[in-house]
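Anyone up for a design puzzle?
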């Protein structure tokens, strides 16, 4: 637990300043995470990973990051066609791998697109999402460690418990809601803050379980080992990716309704 806590504090010290500042520091953080995530997405396939495919995946995430939203669908279509071309003419990816790579890349790029849109409201909104997500993660870890008795979904994640899930939800919801009431009401409707605070921790846990299901499918414990006690980048941001996608969707729906 001590190693996990120390690593978590180091990660926070590295990641939080760019999240607050935005602009170039955030861009560099996003590119670094995208590069590491591109490697980890493919590395779970063990001996079938090539640097050419990793480079293509990283380039694709960057392209879909920088293109305007009006060109995002054409970029996805192009990416999908190229994946099938790789499958047809090489042995780099099977059909199963193709589906996996496509889904994981969409999760990564939609989350990044979410970051872009969220920052139009201000970096303070990103802190709100991080609190909902990692507040849930931290709460689930401690409540599960001290009070966990009833398994949540053992076939996917044997260590997770209902006590941890409920405790994590409470911590994430309460922490983010209090923060939102104090700092976001001039940017976002209080009813939206309440709804988001209640649902974001649930989405965070769905993201965590979803990535656990992927690791179970590929028979790996972690996506990587870059963070002692935490695994790889994807192990650390799995729930955050889902929260970014989800909150991005909330903002888009609100904007459409308002218009």
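Challenge accepted. My sequence:
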């Amino acid at each position: 637990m001590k190693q996990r806590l120390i690593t978590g504090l180091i990660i926070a010290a590295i990641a939080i300043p760019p999240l607050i500042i935005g602009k170039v520091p955030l861009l560099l953080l996003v590119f670094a995470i995208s590069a590491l995530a591109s490697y980890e997405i493919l590395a779970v396939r063990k001996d079938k990973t090539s640097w050419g495919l990793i480079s293509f995946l990283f380039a694709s995430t960057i392209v879909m990051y920088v293109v305007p939203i009006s060109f995002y669908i054409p970029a996805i279509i192009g990416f999908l066609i190229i994946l099938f071309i790789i499958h047809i003419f090489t042995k780099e990816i099977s059909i199963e791998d193709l589906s996996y790579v496509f889904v994981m890349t969409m999760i990564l790029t939609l989350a990044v697109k979410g970051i872009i849109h969220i920052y139009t409201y201000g970096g303070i909104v990103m802190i709100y999402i991080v609190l909902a997500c990692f507040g849930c993660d931290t709460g689930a870890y401690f409540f599960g460690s001290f009070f966990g008795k009833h398994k949540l979904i053992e076939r996917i994640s044997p260590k997770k418990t209902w006590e941890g899930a409920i405790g994590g939800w409470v911590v994430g919801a309460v922490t983010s809601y209090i923060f939102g009431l104090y700092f976001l009401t001039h940017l976002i409707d209080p009813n939206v803050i309440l709804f988001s605070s209640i649902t974001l921790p649930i989405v965070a846990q769905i993201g965590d379980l979803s990535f656990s299901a992927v690791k179970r499918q590929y028979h790996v414990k972690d996506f990587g080992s870059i963070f002692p006690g935490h695994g790889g980048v994807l192990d650390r941001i799995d729930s955050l990716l889902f929260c970014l996608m989800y909150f991005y969707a909330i903002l888009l729906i609100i904007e459409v309704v308002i218009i």
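A detail worth pointing out: The mean pLDDT is 88.
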